[in-house]
Amino acid sequence: MGRWEPDARGRLAKAALELYAEHGYEQTTVAEIAKRAGLTERTFFRHYADKREVLFAGAGELEDLFVRAVADAPRAAVPLDALTVGLDAVAEMFADRREFARRRHAVITANAELQERELIKLASLAAALVDTLRGRGLAEPTASLAAEAAVAVFKVAFERWIAPGEERAMRQLIRESLTELKAVTSGV
Amino acid sequence: MGRWEPDARGRLAKAALELYAEHGYEQTTVAEIAKRAGLTERTFFRHYADKREVLFAGAGELEDLFVRAVADAPRAAVPLDALTVGLDAVAEMFADRREFARRRHAVITANAELQERELIKLASLAAALVDTLRGRGLAEPTASLAAEAAVAVFKVAFERWIAPGEERAMRQLIRESLTELKAVTSGV
DNA sequence: TTACGTGATGACAGAGACTGACATCAGGTG
DNA sequence: CACCTGATGTCAGTCTCTGTCATCACGTAA
Q: Would the Cβ of A6 be found within 7 angstroms of any atom in strand D?
């Protein structure tokens, strides 16, 4: 056995989600999270930049996955179709984590600071998509608008996917949201 | 003359923007802002909920203006046209404040925490637009997608409007961004 | 085996954001 | 003149987050 219990980072994330869910984000102190994980407050801040970031460790991977899928989409694909390839990749990644996503999202929805962090992660995703679309030859401001549209579709589809009782696959909800977006922007 | 210098709130906002621009947001303490405004730190927090909010006092008015314009758009107007009425109202409100908007936006762009706050203000705007569109009879998720699209158009047009050397009116940039959005979502 | 470097953690002090409670006091009101 | 009100000041305290130094199991090389 090593000197320390393994996976300190994961233990902190687990303790934080539990405590945020049990007592609320604001009512939970970092010292409490660290204690439940068998560590000290100082060590928490070595693993996570701040008290919010502990809920968003997976955002980078989601961004990488999305971006890579868009970049690898057929060169002939129209921007929105390339973005759809990325959306499908994200849907697949989430597929078997619906309950975890529900718990996590309930915590975030209950607190404005956490929503802010979620929004900037989505903004970062949008910015990365803009770069990728530009790399595919799309000009501004079209690239920004297409990226924002794709993120909007993701947001809407995700919220529907985690709605209580919802059982349809995220991929299907993404398809429906894309269709709705096309309809509403075509001025019907 | 009254017991206190007038417009404490405005003095705090002015001092904060100046100091954030001069030394950066993080390097500025609330005590310094209060001192420049001739007040104490405690009084700052009576006027603004936190150190960031002092830059976003106008967000509520922008939201009200936008929402009211959409609500008052002709009943026959298609969602995107109603939203365009709102965008035009916002453009008019900004018209004579381009230099102030540039200074303020430069401060926000330089700091992630301030960007988070900006994003949640835009999310609040989007949520208010959803309510308004629902009031006009639009169903979900179409209402959410239309609102997100309108906010995306605003973001893109605003950024172009404050770009160095840009002199075109915001209304025109909004028109162009709307056209781009329609093109990209129609799959061209 | 011994000496040394490395990396994850702990301990501690301190700055700064934010809050609650109470004090102050000019101006209005009866 | 007594009283109330509202904006501000003062002070103590909690919590987030950071810098710095100490600790110590483990791996590596002489």
A: no
Residue spans of chain B under pLDDT 50? none
Confirm if B24 and B89 have CB atoms less than 8 A apart: no
Provide mean pLDDT across the span A89-118.
98
Is the pLDDT reported for residue A1 higher than 70? no
Structure tokens at A97: 């984590």
B148–A148: do the CB atoms touch at under 8 Å? Answer: yes
| Class of the CATH domain delimited by B8-54 | mainly alpha
User: Rg (Cα) of chain B, in Å, rounded?
Assistant: 19
Give the C-alpha separation, A124 to A136, whole Å: 19
- Assigned fold of B58-185: Tetracycline Repressor; domain 2 (1.10.357)
Whose tokens are 């006027």? That residue is: B47
Q: Where are the domains of chain B?
A: 8-54, 58-185
Q: For a pLDDT cut of 90, what percent of chain B falls above it?
A: 96
Q: For residue B119, what is the enclosing H or E element?
A: helix B112-135
Chain A residue with minimal CA distance to B177?
A: A141
Asked if A50 reaches chain B (Cβ–Cβ under 8 Å), the answer is no
Mention every residue, 6+ apart, whose C-beta is less than 8 A from residue B122. Answer: B151, B154, B155
Contacts of A6 (CB under 8 A, 6+ apart): none
**What's the pLDDT tens digit per position in A27-73?**
999 999 999 999 999 999 999 999 999 999 999 999 999 999 999 99
Contact B145 A181 (CB under 8 A): yes
Structure letter (DSSP) for residue A139: P
